Amino acid sequence: MRGQCNLDDEGTTVLLPPTLVPPSPGAIARLVAESRQRSLAQAPPRTAARPRRALSTEDADRRLRCGPLGRHVGLLRELLEPVMRPGRLALAVADPGARVLAVVGDDDACRRAHALGLRPGYDWSEAAVGTNGVGTAAACRAPVRVTGPQHHADLGPEVVSWAAPVRAPGGDVVGVLGLTGPALAERGQELAVLTAAAAAVEARLALEDLPAAGGGDSGGAGPDAVAVAHLRALGRRRAVLAAGGCRVELSARHSEIALLLAWFPAGLSAEHLAGLLERGRRDAVVVRAEMRRLREALAPLGRAARLTPRPYRFERTPTCDAWRVVDLVRTGRLAEAVAAHAGGVLPGSTAPGIESVRHDVARRLRTAVLERHDAGLLLELARCPENHDDAELWDRVAGAYEPGTPGRAEALAELERIDADLRA
User: Fold this and answer.
1) What CA dihedral angle connects 199, 205, 206 and 210, to 10 degrees?
2) Contact criterion met (CB below 8 Å) for 204 and 72
């Protein structure tokens, strides 16, 4: 049964997915046996079953960033650290089709995972690989444990995988979390901890659609009392990071770095970050110096904005107003998305990574508005500062209104202004 959480006396109710708990050992055995039967009927032979690339690395990363799980990678790291660190396990974050979007863990764990084919963009569905943690959890919509020879593909006798689905409030699976590592690393609590982490993300997803979600700072005694900071970068040349009533306005360069780390929750190397900040230059030494200064600038926010190295990332991925626009577009709340987006992402920044984020968010919003065929909404989008000189958009507005209407007159006047500016 779907859970309900009443938050206040005014009747605000959050609908949560059904409680997710690890199945009993007997239930897991049945799930694995059923999966093995499906694999024999549908998957390639054991000797030929192996993960294959289904998405480019860039597409996998983009799907993670713009999907429902991207902003929660930091939370997952924190919750799973007790079982990942001593066991040297790697965490795979996959989409509902069991395509891996990110692999998280220390260097050794990630290398072992990559050697198995657990890489961003690779398909681990039962149809491709047969019985395995991520693919079987996606297929049966329940937590599972698959060990050694239970895997359909030949991954080696010592490989163990645990996986759990993550569901939206309506019950649809929106992703899968999988831990993988050597059998000697198993301590017996992996599936329970992983299932609890999936449930925590499900609760976060349910809360995100509340009116206050992503809209500002959480209350509390101080920055360490809040779970996540919030980054404001829309319509600003200098971003603001806030948590627990404390706010820090960042320099232009630190604004770019903070946004990129929020946008790439799995983390960035110094070299990758350098390439996103400057064209033609990849000075990792300069980036490392900036990261030291950024840590000092974020110190007043405490654990809410702590940065970790190798790769550089937020320990707890902040929410971000740019993410919020993507969420609003995805859920069809376009009027709110247009109002929130006005100004664009860090306008004025010429860092290639920021320009890519800016164009990605703006493109998603623009495409959705154009497909809605709502003249009023189209006019509101054209009025936003970032679209001041967009002749194509103003032309679409003019075509959406009948002759003689105020909307058409405004659009025609803007087109005349743009044309005059071009001739000047």
Assistant:
1) 150
2) yes
Give the Cα-Cα-Cα angle 49, 50, 56 (nearest 5 degrees).
140
Burial 310-348 (b: 16+ CB within 10 A, else e): ebbbbebbbbbbbbbbbbbbeeeebbebbebbeebbbee
Residue (of 116, 115, 90, 112) closest to 103 by Cα position: 90
| Cβ contact 162:194 at 8 Å | yes
How far lies 151's CA from each of 135, 159, 378, in Å?
11, 9, 52
Cα–Cα distance measured from residue 366 to residue 341, given in angstroms and rounded to the nearest whole number = 11
d(CA 63, CA 315): 21
Side chain identity, residue 223: P
Interhelix angle for 284-298 vs 270-277, to 10°? 90
Tokens at residue 409, please?
Answer: 């007159």
Nearest to 78 by CA among 265, 213, 205: 265
What gap in Å lies between CA 191 and CA 144, rounded to an integer?
A: 7
Mean pLDDT by 10 residues, the chain (424 residues): 41 46 85 93 88 88 82 86 81 94 89 91 93 94 92 88 89 91 87 93 77 41 53 93 86 95 88 88 84 91 86 87 88 89 91 93 93 91 90 93 92 91 82
Q: For residue 178, what is the enclosing H or E element?
A: strand 173-182
| Count of other CB atoms within 10 angstroms of residue 160 | 23
The C-alpha atoms of residue 144 and residue 24 are separated, in whole angstroms, by 10
Residue owning tokens 């006396």:
9
Q: For the chain, which domains are there?
A: 17-207 (3.30.450.40), 223-320 (1.10.10.10), 321-423 (no CATH)
DSSP 220: S
C-alpha R_g of the chain: 24
CA neighbor of 137 nearest in space, from 103, 106, 93: 93
Q: Are strands 230-232 and 319-320 parallel, antiparallel or unpaired?
A: parallel
- The Cα–Cα gap between 287 and 299 comes to 18
Cβ pair 103, 109 in contact under 8 A: no
Q: Tokens 């990332």 sit at which residue?
A: 313
CB-count burial class (<10 Å; 0-12, 13-18, 19+) for 138? buried
CB atoms within 10 A of CB 21: 12
Report yes or no on whether pTM surpasses 0.70: no
